[in-house]
């Protein structure tokens, strides 16, 4: 039911939101890919709601083991849409900020969201006192889900976001700083790569017409990243991040840096400035 709704109303809303862009730009080539991307985002936020319900319910029930098991898979849908996080930056701070972003770090009352819960579950080893943070996370996720269909997705933000996220992975996330308590970073990486690759894949037919060599290069680098991650798969997820060897971490960093550089040229290739 959700999928059917999104594919019918979501497409209409997406196209309506980009009417101004289409009128200003003689090329309509981006309208279809961006409409498809908005549906992808809406599907992921809907999934995030369902997954977060189970995650926060486990926390409030005091089920530590279940809550810890659900943490990484719940985050996946959010990490897939991170290329456009600047479109809901207020919610991104509340949902996904790290302790480093606050004056008092973990002790700061403003530190909320996934990583505040992660800190409690792993560092404190308890669900005690986490119910208010679970409720806040759930409320923020509902707000995000409700807001998505009304958002306009500027093409320069969508296209630029894919490169910006790869730059963030290479510059900071690769160190393991994001999921520092749970060591579930590889789950996030996989989702980040999937989210950026979705944007690239939707735009690829347009780029292939003018630069097939570029497309082959980017395809190869995404495949190389996937090959590194595949070595650390465990069941439906990934092993703990500290099991990543230095050699593979360096290889991953190199490939992600190259992806960031290549994806940063997409705006120019598509005439977005």
Would you mind describing this structure in some detail?
The chain is mostly helical and 273 residues long. It has a single domain, classed as M75 peptidase, HXXE motif (A middle domain of Talin 1, Up-down Bundle), CATH 1.20.1420. It has helices spanning 2-17, 19-24, 31-60, 64-80, 89-96, 114-123, 131-148, 155-171, 185-210, 212-230, 246-263, 266-269, and strands spanning 233-234, 237-238. It starts with a helix and ends with a helix.
Q: Report the end-to-end length measured between terminal Cα atoms.
A: 39 Å
Class from secondary-structure proportions: mainly alpha
Per CATH, the superfamily is: M75 peptidase, HXXE motif
Helix content: 55-70%
Outline the biggest β-sheet: 2 strands, antiparallel
Q: Tell me the number of structural domains.
A: 1
Specify the CATH class.
Answer: Mainly Alpha
Count the beta strands.
Answer: 2
Low-confidence stretches: 1-24
CATH architecture: Up-down Bundle
**CATH-defined topology:** A middle domain of Talin 1
From the spread of the alpha carbons, the general shape counts as globular
Mean pLDDT: 90
Strand order of the largest sheet: 1-2
Radius of gyration: 19 Å
Helical stretch tally: 12
């Amino acid at each position: 039911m959700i999928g059917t709704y999104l594919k019918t109303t979501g497409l209409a809303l997406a196209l309506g939101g980009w009417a101004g862009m289409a009128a200003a730009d003689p090329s309509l080539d981006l309208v279809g890919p961006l409409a498809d991307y908005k549906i992808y985002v809406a599907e992921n936020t809907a999934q995030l709601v369902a997954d977060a319900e189970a995650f926060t319910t486990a926390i409030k029930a005091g089920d530590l083991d279940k809550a810890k098991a659900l943490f990484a898979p719940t985050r996946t849908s959010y990490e897939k849409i991170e290329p456009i996080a600047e479109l809901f930056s207020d919610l991104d701070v509340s949902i996904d900020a790290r302790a480093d972003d606050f004056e008092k770090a973990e002790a700061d009352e403003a530190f909320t969201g996934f990583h505040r819960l992660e800190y409690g579950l792993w560092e404190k080893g308890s669900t005690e006192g986490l119910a208010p943070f679970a409720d806040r996370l759930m409320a923020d996720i509902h707000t995000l889900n409700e807001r998505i269909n009304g958002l306009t997705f500027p093409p320069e933000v969508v296209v630029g976001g894919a490169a910006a996220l790869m730059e963030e992975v290479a510059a900071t996330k690769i160190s393991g700083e994001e999921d520092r308590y749970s060591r579930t970073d590889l789950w996030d990486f996989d989702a980040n790569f999937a989210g950026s690759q979705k944007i690239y894949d939707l735009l690829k037919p347009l780029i292939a017409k003018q630069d097939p060599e570029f497309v082959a290069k980017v395809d190869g680098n995404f495949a190389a990243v996937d090959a590194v991650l595949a070595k650390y798969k465990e069941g439906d997820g990934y092993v703990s991040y500290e099991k990543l060897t230095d050699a593979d971490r360096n290889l991953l960093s190199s490939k992600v840096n190259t992806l960031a550089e290549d994806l940063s040229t997409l705006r120019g290739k598509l005439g977005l400035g």
